[in-house]
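Protein entry
_____________
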Amino acid sequence: MTALPLVFEAPKRGLPPRHLADLSVAERAEAVAELGEKPFRAKQLSNHYFSRLTVDPEAMTDIPAASRERLVTELMPPLLTEVRALEADGGATRKTLWRAHDGTLLESVLMRYPDRATLCISSQAGCGMACPFCATGQGGLDRNLSTAEIVDQVRSAAAVMRDGLMPGGPGRLSNIVFMGMGEPLANYKRVVAAVRRITEPAPSGLGISQRSVTVSTVGLAPAIRKLADEKMQVRLAVSLHTPDDELRDTLVPVNNRWSVDEVLEAARYYADTSGRRVSIEYALIRDINDQPWRADLLAKRLRKHLGQLVHVNVIPLNPTPGSKWDASPKPVEREFVRRVNAGGVACTVRDTRGQEIAAACGQLAAEG
């Protein structure tokens, strides 16, 4: 097998200074004590950040003013500044372009549905996986995001929902998907820490159920197994995009390192360990991976490796400007879905949102 010269660790660039959301509960108490403050101040700070969703020192009136400024300066440095927010789908989709402290750009997309509100977050600025049909992959990897930069996307969206800044009035952020910019498992340690911050009960964390969090990957098989051993209840989503190695070597270059069989075996280990069904993501691309025989092969391979512990999400490709890649025609899409279902594997088409605001990950940042 050909070794693939992919760099999984981001270039050593400007991660932000330490932030409260980077730290465990015990580490927060230590950090506060190091600043000469009583350890209980850590819980007060956590309550403001994770429960009240604020980083405004003026709002922290339960902390003495002199201590407040110092604690906020040291443990809540500014992380993300909103560059612009675009709305689509009658205001039910909101895409935000963020600028980090070092000028790095990243994106998140908040989607409100009648029964839930889902936030798609980024784990890296850019991506090193080089998938040719993906706007982010074509831009390359800028750097990993810190744990706190990941968590702060969620805190901000939770505040948008709470404050009723989307149509439908005040609501609650309920679901998190790591399907924005970057390969989450290539920033493994920080992503796992972020999941723990997102799911720990308030005020230790944001209190979102682990079962409402999805972590996606293009198929870093050893990291999938490692994630399984964390014994969390998050859903795993594997971006497969084709069931055959020959095409996947091109569409998802990391396949040169871990084949379809290896990825699906790791996914089965995750399903067996977590007890949760695995999602298979399949971006349907006109005349590339939408042939009937590929639908049949997909069902066959998934049934072999995952049995009933799998669901396929067919995603109509959201083409990027000037790209040669295009979405499959609807009749082709319907036949593909029909054949996968007929092959004994549950398959549905994912709802697409925000096409008029370049909501495919990486498109807004690419526009600058």
In short: Residues 80-367 form a domain with the TIM Barrel fold (CATH 3.20.20.70). The chain has two domains: 20-75, 80-367. The CA atoms of residues 53 and 156 lie 7 Å apart. Residues 147-162 form the longest helix (16 residues).
